[in-house]
Fold this sequence. Notes:
Blueprint: E1 2-4, E2 8-11, E3 14-22, H1 39-66, H2 72-82, H3 85-96, H4 102-118, H5 123-126, H6 128-143, E4 158-162, H7 167-171, E5 178-183, H8 191-199, E6 203-205, H9 210-213, E7 219-223, E8 228-231, H10 235-255, E9 272-277, H11 282-285, E10 294-298, H12 300-304, H13 312-326, E11 330-334, H14 362-367, H15 369-382, E12 387-392, H16 398-417, E13 427-432, H17 435-439, H18 441-447, E14 450-453, H19 455-463, H20 481-496, E15 501-503, H21 513-519, E16 524-527, H22 529-540, H23 544-554, H24 560-571
Helix pairs in contact: 1-2, 1-6, 2-6, 3-4, 4-6, 13-15, 15-16, 18-20, 21-23, 23-24
The structure holds phosphoenolpyruvate and magnesium ion (MG).
Amino acid sequence: MERIKQGHAVSKGIGIGRAFVYTRYTPEKKVVYIDEKDVETTFARYHSILQQAHQEIDSIRESLEKKGDDKAKIFQAHLDILHDIALEEMIEQYIKQERFSIAYAVHEAFDMFIEIISQVEDDLIKERVADLKDVKNRVLRIEEGLPETNLSRLSEPSVIIADDLYPSDTATLDRNYVEALITEIGGVTSHTAIIAKSYEIPAILGIEGVMKKVKHGTPVIADAIKGELIIDPDEKLIDEYQIKRKEYKAKQALLITYLPLKPITKDNIKVEVTLNIGSASDEELSYVPYVDGVGLFRSEFLYMENDHLPTEDEQYQVYAKALKAFGEKPVILRTLDIGGDKELSYLALPKEDNPFLGCRAIRLCFEHPDILQTQLRAALRASVNGNLWLMFPMVGSIDDIEKIHDAVSQAKVSLDSEKIPYSTDVKVGVMIEIPSLILIADHVAKMVDFASIGTNDLCQYLTAVDRLNPLVSSYYQSYSPAMFRIIKMAIDAFNKEHKPISVCGELGGDPIAAPILLGLGMRKISMAKSSVAKIKKIITSHDMVKFSQAAHHILNLTKEKDVIEYVQSVLKLED
Length: 575
Ligand code: PEP
Ligand code: MG
């Protein structure tokens, strides 16, 4: 038995199961020829590999289709690629005439198609590259005799151990059997953390070297309350943890009683509690009755979970569904926030040494005006269904704000010219993530309708710490007095202009930070589903005066550690 106490427990809970060590297969291209006498048997073997690939793809397609999941279509496209006549003929010719090994023939044939398609002007065709690569890797993996490691089809309660998880992995995650997620990369604010919280799966992220330490199939316990991974526990410990897990779940069930309460403090100050969502799934929308709207709709998930740039119509459907569900309550839709840690398999991004400081989010959209215009048109069209607030990420200057207003006007003009209706009440706001924007917040507040503070990135840029790098995670101090001082400047500037300001980073749903933010004058905080009940409990059981006193006290403290201790002691927060 071994205990690893490292990383961050980003989504609380306890998971018990067998380790599912997940490695994404990456093939190596080698030039290998076969003997003339082996040609026929090699070709026959190639056909049996094709058959196995067909079975694998078809069974994923079938299980997604049964769940009514649209992603079934992706796997239908994979079957079409697998049986593409031109590809098959080329591979046959490579094996029979050139005497290439199966792997070399598959590499050469697919690579040629990938190259041709990459050069086509049409974006929709270009996007097929990701599918071609996927099918090629599947065929090569089968050829190497390696098993399918697919998170969509687990057969027993499993704790997923991975280097990192991509949205394509989390999108197809078999949630019936996933007990916990453990990764080497990623911290409190990574996309895996966001997904884990929204699915309420216990997760510990940022355990360096964990892939080497845990063998596939070993029993493990993920204690994402204490932040401990226990490898190969004995029966007695497993029994103890079964009880702990039950108790934890019972405690969570009790918290649920706070869910329907109005977020009003004991001294009668009303606060808005809103939701962070990544899709318009029924699961996300089930919280409509308990919240005051959506404080952050991370639209990039729609892009990341797809194999192509979502069309205007595809986006329209999703935004309209969310807006309809929330009715008069505002839905803050954030425009595409790609780059940094978030990639799109079908969109080539420039290679940068410091991607978090580079061409990400709104900067990337300025570089790709077509992508931005498609999204703005889709959102504006959907606006007639509800109360849309458009928000732009990674804004750093007044120049950015001017460009944003131009882009929104352009989308409106194009809709006008086609006589397509949209709401005239759509609000335009910015995310405050770059400290430079706070230093000129008085001007910013005059130029936009609202702002929301992205504390995940704000902390990254304020403290100069890569938010995903486990080596420097102790420097990422989001409770530091410096953070609260700078946040206060933004709150004051927006309150002075009577413009709404909120927090939608992780601090908004954090039991230590949320009371301080409220005490500093914030009246709207946004969070993942899993935090709503807990935060409502804190709000409804305290006076705002107490939050305010605590907030003003911590502004004069010097260290993060002191802030945590102080808030815990005065507000008597439970775990
Ligand atoms: C943030 O930076 O706080 C934020 C909410 O955006 P994301 O975590 O998606 O970068
Ligand atoms: Mg951000």
